[in-house]
Write a sequence for this structure.
């Protein structure tokens, strides 16, 4: 029987609850724990209040084998994690000679004067195992209490990651007999979550008990995450590959990649492989498509530039859209989007041109063209492909979904040319 090791990750700090900083620690820690076979069952954030920290520790002990805390280990009075842990464990603070030597050396190397507050960072709960921090002054701490492991780490992401990678994860692997947890992500686009679920229902129902499927929708995409748990990593990899091979014929036209693939990376690789250049004309997306394309390192090999033609005057002057077309059909029309895509290809001298034009919202819609009406196009020397999108009322969502769909249309056109 596979022994499941459960973890809870707790971040401490008012600044997290106030929304003044983004908590990236819990996401990173959970990923790393999964990689060594420890399953995170809860993530929590509490402020700098002793009662709240004590309460969450007592709750976490009921559901987790490993409790990892980050934050509250600085030298100032609002950093109360160590004192609160003393209360929780029923012990006193004791100055640790190794911790003091490290803090002293840290300040001496930088020619800075140590204060009593700095020396206080070497005071640890009496039952703590000192975990040396070579990347800062706040020590890491390891506790074993009532058949549970507690780990306290600095909240600074760089220090936390170094301590986890070099000190804590190896120690956890030695302490627990952990299972192997493997993930495989299938990246789909252009099909809704419910339609996808119906199409693969029989396959999903036939999955082995130790392989679980999750649907992760995000702005026009759905990630299918397969999670396999066992004791043999190679066997799990083979089983996941077999399941992917079984499901692919059902959804292959919607699959653009696997694991960490992104649409902008996939289309970039296609352009690079085919030695093609790309130009972009954006209206309703306001440069977001270009931002996604240029987020890929090396995109200068195929991306030449873009024109954000928000005003109709620029559509005419820079893209060569016909004033008559705009007058008869409007900026949000198939006729206009075709001329925008071909116009940017011609103006920038690229092999491929893509374009977006629509009513992103929250206002500007009409009975004939309500908010969320958007046209996209891809132009090559051989053809122009267009799509009409009928989206919702939310501007940011419409911009992101439109970007996903125009990149996917580009992917499809490039693949058509291959096929």
């Amino acid at each position: 029987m596979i022994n499941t090791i459960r973890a809870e990750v707790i971040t401490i700090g008012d600044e997290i609850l106030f929304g003044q900083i983004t908590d990236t620690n819990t996401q990173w820690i959970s990923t790393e724990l999964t990689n060594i076979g420890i399953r995170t069952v809860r993530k929590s954030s509490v402020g700098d209040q002793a009662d709240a920290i004590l309460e969450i520790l007592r709750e976490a002990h009921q559901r987790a084998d490993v409790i990892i805390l980050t934050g509250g280990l600085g030298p100032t009075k609002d950093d109360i994690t160590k004192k609160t842990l003393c209360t929780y464990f029923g012990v006193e603070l004791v100055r640790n000679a190794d911790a003091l030597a490290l803090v002293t050396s840290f300040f001496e190397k930088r020619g800075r004067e140590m204060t009593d507050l700095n020396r206080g960072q070497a005071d640890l709960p009496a039952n703590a195992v000192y975990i040396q921090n070579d990347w800062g002054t706040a020590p890491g701490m390891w506790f074993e209490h009532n058949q549970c492991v507690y780990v306290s780490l600095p909240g600074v992401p760089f220090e936390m990651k170094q301590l986890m990678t070099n000190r804590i994860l190896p120690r956890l692997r030695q302490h627990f007999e952990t299972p192997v947890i493997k993930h495989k992500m299938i990246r789909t686009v252009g099909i809704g979550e419910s339609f996808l679920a119906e199409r693969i229902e029989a396959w999903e129902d036939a999955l082995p008990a130790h392989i679980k499927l999750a649907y992760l929708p995000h702005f026009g995409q759905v990630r299918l995450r397969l999670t396999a748990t066992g004791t043999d990593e190679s066997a799990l990899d083979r089983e996941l590959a077999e399941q992917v091979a079984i499901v692919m014929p059902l959804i292959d036209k919607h699959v653009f990649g696997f694991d960490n693939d992104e649409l902008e990376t996939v289309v970039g690789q296609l352009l690079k492989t085919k030695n093609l250049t790309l130009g972009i004309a954006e209206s309703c997306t306001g440069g977001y498509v270009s931002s996604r394309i240029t987020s890929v390192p090396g995109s200068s090999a195929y991306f030449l530039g873009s024109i954000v033609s928000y005003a109709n005057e620029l559509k005419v002057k820079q893209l060569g859209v016909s004033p008559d077309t705009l007058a008869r059909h409007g900026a949000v029309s198939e006729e206009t989007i075709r001329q925008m895509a071909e116009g940017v290809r011609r103006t920038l001298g690229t092999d491929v041109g893509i374009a977006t034009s629509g009513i992103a919202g929250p206002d500007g819609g009409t009975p004939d063209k309500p908010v969320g009406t958007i046209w996209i196009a891809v132009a090559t020397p051989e053809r122009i492909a267009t799509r009409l999108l009928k989206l919702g009322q939310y501007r940011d969502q419409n911009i992101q979904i439109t970007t996903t769909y125009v990149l996917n249309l580009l992917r499809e056109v490039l693949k058509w040319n291959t096929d």
User: Anything to note?
Assistant: The two ends are 48 Å apart (CA to CA). The chain has three domains: 5-175, 184-258, 263-418. Residues 395-418 form the longest helix (24 residues). The mean pLDDT is 94.
